[in-house]
Structures are given as C-alpha cells and as structure tokens.
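Hi F.,

I've been meaning to write this up properly since the lab meeting, where we talked about keeping a consistent format for the predictions we share between groups. The idea is simple: the sequence comes first, exactly as it goes in, then the structure tokens exactly as they come out, then a line or two of notes. No screenshots and no reformatting. I'm using this chain as the first example so we have something concrete to point to.
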Amino acid sequence: MPSNHLPGALRAVSIAAVVSIALALPTDSAAQAGAGMAPAAQARVQQVLDNFSKGRWIGQVAISPDGARLAWVEGGRGGEHIQVAPWGQLDAEQTITAEGGGDGCDENSLAWAPDSHALAFLSDCGSDGQDNLYLWHADGGSVQQLTRLQGYVHAPAFAPDGTRIAFLFVPGATRPAGALAAQDPSEGVIGEGKAEVQRVAMVHADGSAPQDPILATPADLHVYEFNWAPDSKALAYIAADPPGENNWWVARLYTQAAPEDGTAEIAKPKMVLDPASVRGPLHGLQIAVPRWSPDGTQIAFIGGLMSDQGVTGGDVWIVSSRGGTPHDLTPNRPSTPSWITWAGEGRLDVTEVAGGEVRLFPLDVKEGHGEISAVAGRPLFTFAGRVGDGRMERSLSATRDRSRFVFVGSSFERAPEMYAVNASGRRDAGAAGGGAVPLSHINQGVQGVAGETVSLAWTNQGFHVQGWLLLPADYDAAKRYPLIVEVHGGPASAVLPSWGAGGSLSPAAFSALGYFVLLPNPRGSFGQGEAFTQANRKDFGYGDLRDILAGVDTVLAKYPVDPGRVGITGWSYGGYMTMFAVTQTQRFKAAVAGAGIADWQSYYGENSIDQWMIPYFGASVYDDPQVYARSSPITFIKRAHTPMLIVVGDRDGECPAPQSFEYWHALRDLHVPVQLVVYPNEGHGFVNPQHRVDVLERAAI
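Output, unedited:
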C-alpha cells in the first residue's frame, strides 16, 4: 500500500489506480494503473452494467380484491408501463396506458377499486412530465383522466366505499418530497421562504372530466402517510409541522374527518399520539404505517428508532383511535416488523426483516381486562431477498379475504419476478403458509453476473450479527482474492439481496469484477429486534465497527481472502463508517466513501434533517458537543493513512458536500492519497445514470 509521503508523481495518479494497486485485482488493471483507468477494466464494468439492463424491471404488482386480475408495472429503457392480465393467464396480458401513452412515458402507482372493476394509476404521458391520476375501467377497457395537477403526487388509495381516491400531493412542487432528492439552490433569505407542504388530496372516482383536487388536510401539516377509515368518512395520518423533510422524526399521529361532498372546508385534525410526550419505550422514537382497524376503534402502526423516512422498522403498536396509551404488540421480538395490514377483526398481517430475510406472519390481537396483547403465528412465507421496490406501501398486495398475497421479489442472483403466496389456511394462527412460488417468468433466461450468495452469522460482544457474502464470479477456491466490505446506509436499515446495480456502489458488480463482497448488518441495523437497532445510540462508529471487523475475521477464517487486500466502502451512513473506520484501524488498504460525514458537529448545522440526530445522540450538538466529537472521523484524522476516493452530489441536503470537502482537505494536507469527485445537480441518491456509472468505474477499477 502507498505510504503517507508519496512522491508527487504517484500522488497525481487517479485514486482508481491507487485502489487497484492496493487491492491487487486479479485483472490486467493493476499492470496498467500507472496510465490511469484501464480501458479493458472499464469495458468490464460496462459489460456488467449492460447485463443488469437485459432484464425487465418490475416495480409493483397489485392483485384485484376479488383475485380475478393481476396488474403490474414493468419497466425498461423506454419507461414504465402497466400490464393487466386475468389471474393464472399472464400470457393474456394487455397494456394499460393513458391517452397518447407510449415509449418515454412513466406509468405507475397502482390502486385497485374495492369492487375490482377499476384500476387507478399515475401517468406523465402527454403532460410534460407532470403526473396525473387516471382510471382504467375493467368493463370495456376505457381509460379516463381524473385530475388536472401541478405538483408532486404519489400513493393513490381508494376510499373503502370506492367513491373517492386520495393521494399525497405537494401543490406547485419544485422537487419530489423528502431528503433524498436534490436540494433547491440556496438563495435569498434562508429559512423564511415558503415551505413545500405535502397534503392529502382527493378526487371523485366517477369524474367525467379532469378535476382540480380537494385538499383534505391543513396547509400547516406535512403528511407522510395516510390511511382511510373503514367507513370512508375519516383519515388517519402521520404528519409534522413544515419543513417536511426535516420533521418526520418528530411526526405525530392524527385523525381527521374527510371533506364532505360540496364543501372544501377542512375539518380540524385530532392528535391521537405524540411520541415526544408519550411515556415508555416509544418516547422520542418514530412512527409510521398507520392502519385503521376494521371496526374503526383502533389504529395500528410501526414504532421504533428509524433513521430515514420510508425505511421503516420497529415494533407493532396499537392505540385507540380516540387517543390514549399505546400498546406494544411485539415486545422483545428478535426481528424487525416493517409493514402491516389488517386481515380482519383482531388479526394483523405483518412483514418483518429477520436475519437478512423477509417474512410475513399473522398476528392475533387479544383484548381483555383492560390489557391488549398479541400472539404471532407461523410465517406464511420467508424470502431471502428484497420484497417490493423499497416503498413499504407497495411491498405486498392481497385479495380482500387475504387468502392470496403477491409481491415482486429479487436477489443478487435472481432477476425480479412476481411471486404468489397461498394463505387460504391462514385462519389457524398455527398454520404455516405454502411459501412463495414464482408467478411470472418475465426475466426467464436472464443470468446474474455475481457469484454465489452466502448468508453468514457471527457473534460479537453478546450480539448475534448477520451479513451477506458475495463470492467472486467464477470463484476458484485454489486462488486468493481481495475483499470489499460494503456498509449499508441508515444506520437503521438492513442489507437484503436485490437484483441489479443497486446504486452507485454495486455489490453485485464488485462480485462480477472478481471481489469477495461482505455486506454486514451490524448493531444499529434492522433484523435482530429493536434492542439491536438501538444498540449504537450515542456510540456511532464503535460497536458497529467492532461487529464489522468480527465479520471480516469470519470471512478470513472460511474463505481464501488475502488479509492484505481488504477494502471498505459505503454510502451515507456507510460513507461515514468508511471515513471513521480508516481512523480506527489499518486493516483496510483502500476506501471509497460515498456521501459521507466527516464531522458530526459541523454536520448538525449544515444538513437539512437535523431532527434525526436527537434520538441517536441524546441531545443537540449545542447541549452535548462531546458526544458528537467522539464519533467524528475528523477528530482522529491524523490516524488515517488509507488511500481514499470520496464522491458526493453538489445538492445533497442529507449529507452535504462540505462534509466531503472537509475530509478531503484533511487527507490532502496529511499527504494521504485522496480524490474528491463532486457530481452536479445530484442529491443524496444519484439519479443521472452516467454519474452512477462513473462512480462505479472509479470505485471498482
């Protein structure tokens, strides 16, 4: 590995070449490193990415409530389109599209009418990129436009009586809601501009002409998720004061009467639950996925320590729809519930992450003598991969009687397909489901380029830790290989095997290029219960790094990995862990930090989402600066000697670019080989395909 005091000529070599030298890839790239990026290796990266694009992307699947039809979103280079077919006859599919639809359109966000006679969806066809709500009528096949919108819209949902469709809407939006999208440029008087507020809007499902939506929730509440009451007369929703991207971590649960026909008057919301004031283990934590019980008396939800809106995990809780004390239905469960739906009176269906896999299980809710408890049944299915597309409200779809579930599933080795679960015997809480069986063969014949996937488990300091190991493609046990450790973001998240490039730092691509790839789920992750998720509070970088290093030792003990050729990478929290790890250990010979955090103290004042930090650090940086300094890579920067590539978007509000500049500046002054690449007009999640390819090429070659 290059030393601290390299001659200027070597420092000028691209960091990709330095990384190739450090890890000594089993290719010709190291021999060509002095010339910069090797054309042959660059061609290999492009070949790997081209293979991912051979398959069809399946974004969502929705079964009609009566079970007679299946609808799904299928995508490719020409955009996303909707297919509908009778159940059991997928070869009789037909394309559903808005008028003027075709290549280049994106159509998605499926929602079946309760009577199964219509399908609502969003389409940007013929409207200059603006999504509008459309309705396909199963009887006759006609498509009508329901809305005339200007703004950001998603998550349509029919009222149970089928008369109206509600959706989340940001009127006049300049960007998608949330912290992942690129931030608007900062100008003018900061903090005093008009916030873009996401509200529940609704339209009639039988409109004869495009309608202006009725805004159903107040302008001073940013709504993140909502659910119709069973009588179609009210809503339950999770909301907070604007700005929405920052305040999800202090959001509250509300109920509110829905607007009546003929009036635009907005009823006064009733706050049902405020985690900031409630006593017990839910105090100060986050809530998500509100679900009104069939009789309208209770609301179930997920509550726990969550670091990102939309990446849901915790315990299943229930509270009276009138307010009161919430009850934990899954205390001490050694897994992480992430999605729920009512399956009838007294029964919930729960999706959870368990040791790196996804499971669905029934939960019977019991009431008596003023107490509420629950009994979990055996899983209806277990899936070793990703279920859905990451949006929890679209993860699974079920028939009205919950006898059949469908979902999109994939893994590192299997391209996306639709799967079905027969749950007809589910009324017996002790009965297991029939498991998940493939429903489609859309990507039949598409071969993965990654090596074999292995689930690893190890123990460290009393914690049970799980992770995934990708073997190099064309693995030969007689050879020795380099290892890349890729740390996930969050930290409250979990690695679930999924198909495709998987972002700018692709584990499947690394495997295809000849690396072992370790994807650990250390303490702070989902999958081992709420206590495990909360185990790195006020301890960022310490216990989780020890878990990761123990995972590296597990790999070294079982596989032919050269301990002198181990690198580390990650994005977001994984980028932070990359920056921190090289200040704590010299085991990593090369590092790539994507959208990382160098200094928690300065980060607190720079980012657009500081509210998430209080539950993790216990206080603001102004009240307890030392707890922030203790976990900051910059505090220990003089211990860093590892060559590093740093990448970030110039409009990242979640992990702002100055954090990457600060770390780059320090390494440069300390004469550590480093390269910083800033990508224009990118937020926290890169959207420009050329930029994502460029990051992978720089990291992998």
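Notes:
The first helix runs from residue 8 to 11.
The longest strand covers residues 357-368.

If this format works for you, I'll send the rest the same way.

G.
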